[in-house]
Amino acid sequence: MSRHAPHSRASAPTSSSDKDGRAIIRIEGIEKTYVLGADNIVRALRGVNLDINRGSYVAIMGPSGSGKSTMLNILGCLDRPTAGNYWLGGENVATMPDDELSAARGKKIGFIFQSYNLIAQLTVIENIQVPLFYQGADLASSYDRCVELAKLVGLGNRLDHRPSQLSGGQQQRVAIARSLVNDPIMILADEPTGNLDSTTGTEVLGMIDDLNAHGKTIVLVTHDEKVAARAHRVIHMKDGQIDREVINRAPPEPSPSR
Amino acid sequence: MVSFKLVSAVRLGIKSLRLHKLRSGLTMLGIIFGVCSVIAMLAIGEGASYEAQEAIKKLGSNNIIIRSVKPPEETRQSGNMGRTFLLDYGLTYADGARLASTIPGVGRVLPMRIIRESIRYDQNEVACQVIGTLPFYKEIVGVDVLRGRFLTDADELHHNNVCVLTAGLASRLFPYQDPLKMSLRVASTYYHIVGLIQERNTVEQRAQPGKLNGEPLDNNVYIPLSTARSRFGEVLIRRAAGSFQMEKIELHQMTVQMKDTSAVETADPQIRTLLKHFHTKNDYELIVPLELLRQARQTQRIFNIVLGSIAAISLLVGGIGIMNIMLATVTERTREIGVRRALGAKKRDITTQFLVETVVLSIGGGLAGVVIGVITPFLVTHFSGMKTIVTVPSVVLAFGISGAIGIIFGLYPANAAAQLDPIEALRHE
Known about the structure:
Oligomer: heterodimer
Shape of chain A: globular
Order of helices and strands of chain B: HHEEHEEHEHEHEEEHEEEHEHHHHH
Helix content of chain A: 25-40%
Distance between the termini of chain B: 35 Å
């Protein structure tokens, strides 16, 4: 993995999409405002524009209060913006009603959380199946695929284990497999190595690199410079807006396959 | 497939409940107790009522029984020492004739004279009832002739000195001999024993008003009515300490058999009017088994309602317990709910998940309650001899209510779970 010297670009974020719509994630004028009281208004996001191409690896960084968590929630379709548009894979999800949003979220986004968030009473293989279940898929016919994913992350021999029987690194690997099961447009990772030691953390980041090498679009939120350095683009947020963007290396050519 | 999703949901619910086995078990207790008590209590009530009703039915729902009753005002002795005091009361043959001829719907009228005597044979002395009656007694009352025969019209015609015993009495008086070869001495007359019978009902035929259990009835001697009249007369002398009283009474009881049940209702007031017209004293009473039957059924209905209410309240309490636990469970699993929402669960997926879990809990308790509720009446019958009847409707009702309770009391927690904000939920804990 070669690295060019990082150089900043001033002010507004660039749009690296072409107009033929190969930016599979497009955010336009996104605002998020919380009204906490009569005179207490919090503007978490104040107009953000961002385009992400298929196959990119983007990291989002920023101090607390910068709006990075809000950005994550909006990107992950867990929250709706107060204003603006968000096209995810061609669909504008900014104004979708809750049921549709949930379906889109389950189908198009794969989550990786800092604290793994596996479901305790389910086994490894059952945890991987959960997103499929909510898409109404036939679990019987997709079982083999789930097994393949488990093997992919190196847990093929622990299909019947419960999360309590796995180490942190192993749990996160299950979470990675789970995030892939619906073949999502984007993998959204929130501090994936935050609870792991450096060795395990490196392993997990290596896996994420592999996913990206195979064409998966990755958006990763972190406060760790070293983690962010693995991405193509690092977006720095401050005070509810994108402050600057750092290109680590050239993004891959937009390819038709994921 | 919808059903596959349901099966998965049920399996998930069971898995989640097994996470906290003790908690789930304790929560189920409320439902188990409620369901079990509905079934068991109704079974006990049904059994008791059944026995009561059967007893009444044996009196004959087509029958109206009229008993002679000693009028209360004249039981007092008027300090006439040495003077005989004749008490004339009760039903008469004339009454019987009038009833038979004037009341519509009357089938037959069975007259009876009943005299209590102590009968002795050898060393065996038994207190019995000597019943003078007509041959069709055996049809009206329901009698199985075990040996020999019952009374006949010929006996009646010729005032024969014959008698028929109940099987129990015969075995008490003649433990070693064959009763049919013996004669029995009653008062100062000997009667040939011509038959042994068993009354089909085991309850005292000569019932007290409103009460059904009289003295145990297996000590009867049946003689022809005409013989009873001529041998015993109509005047009975009672001697008690310091007093001397004579009673003149023609018939102790009449059983009026109506042609069908519907005639009973109309005949009741008519008979009362007729008798009132010819009797100056209050020296008789009517027992209408049909009326008693109705009352018994009414009592049972009230009983069922009361018992049912108690059981319903306990089910309600069980349901509140379930709701309480599910609310706690939802709070505990807030994180899980957030994760599932992030993975694509819609609000109704979450509602379904927790509702299914609650229903599994309540139906699990319902099943256990049904099993225990069906076994308990059998144990009760085995150990106490009381009759119990487990009715299918009570089982279905109790089980159905347990399911309904799961749905009703699970709805609020399930909905609360679904309304959680995914972002907040993910931050929880």
